[in-house]
Amino acid sequence: MTIIRTVKKMHQSVRKIAGEGKTIGLVPTMGFLHEGHLALIRRAKRLADVVIVSIFVNPTQFAPHEDFNRYPRDEKGDIKKIKEVGGDIVFIPAKAEIYPDHFQTFVAVEKLTQTLEGAMRPTHFRGVTTIVAKLFNITRPDVAIFGMKDYQQAMVLKQMTFDLGYPIKFIIAPTVREKDGLAMSSRNKYFTAAQRKEALCLYYALKKAKAMVTKEKIRDCRKIEKEMKAIIKKVCPSAAIDYIAFTDFTTLTPLKKVASETVCSLAVRVHKVRLIDNMKLL
Ligand code: AMP
After folding, report:
1. Residue of the nearest CA to atom 22 in ligand 1?
2. What residues does each domain of the chain span?
3. Which of 11, 85, 147, 204 is deepest in the core (most CB within 10 A)?
4. pLDDT per position as a tens digit, 22-43
């Protein structure tokens, strides 16, 4: 496994790989890797000859009041894990490699970024699309793998890939959960054991929503939302709900009634840690 830290070396490396007729799979991450990330790497290995994993805590997707500085980092541990699952190249650029002085060019997807996370975090997706466009340009992948855990992010990036004409197969992999259902996230590290139990409120609420739709045949989103709110309050009394949304899977259009391809997404602040999760209801 090779560790590359500069854009120049990465360019040289991908040119060589392509010259040998091999395909490249890219898994972009912000590090502090867990099983969710490793599942994406394993998937990439099945789809491409050479797998590149990038680790970069991208400052432009964090607002000034967000957790950029305290975002967990573990470069050594990450490298070990990537090696264990068979990643071929780890790309770990310094900030100045990605955002040199006088950097002033951003990529923005317009409509899909207006709702859900985009409505709460107005500059977030511009940072995400910019870093991923840069990573696409630097690593020239044939296939790129993203997680459903960040559902809106995946749809926004898929749109960007299409709109900018990148010749990249875009894969969205399922959310990996802990045994008790908590969606794996680098931010789970912030919790004490007791707080972590309360963090399950998102999963319990989603599970209830799914059961109401599939077992009780309820379609009214407001009715489902009411039940979800009650569960969240019960499991985590201090929780602050940023949103609970029901949208069409592809267009992210808000829905009043659950129809085929409806995704329920939610963002909840649990002991000051902002968590997101989602589930397809039908
Ligand atoms: P992050 O390091 O949080 O930016 O995530 C890097 C990639 O891993 C993104 O495509 C995420 O959607 C994906 N990811 C994060 N958590 C999970 C999870 N629990 N299951 C599957 N994919 C995930």
Report:
1. 147
2. 2-173, 186-280
3. 147
4. 999 999 999 999 999 999 999 9
Question: Which CATH architecture group holds 186-280?
Answer: 2-Layer Sandwich (3.30)
* Buried-exposed string 203-225: b where 16+ CB fall within 10 A, e elsewhere: bbbbebbbebbeeeebbebeebb
CA distance 81 to 5: 18
The CATH topology of domain 2-173 is Rossmann fold (3.40.50)
Q: In the beta sheet, which residues pair with residue 2?
A: 89
Q: What ligand 1 atom has the least distance to the C-alpha of 37?
A: 8
For 271, half-sphere exposure in the C-beta direction (CA atoms, 13 angstrom radius) is: 17
Specify the ligand 1 atom closest to the Cα of 150. Answer: 12
40 lines ligand 1 (CB under 6 A): yes
Question: Mutate which of 27, 30, 35, 37 to test ligand 1's pocket (most atoms within 8 Å of Cβ)?
Answer: 37
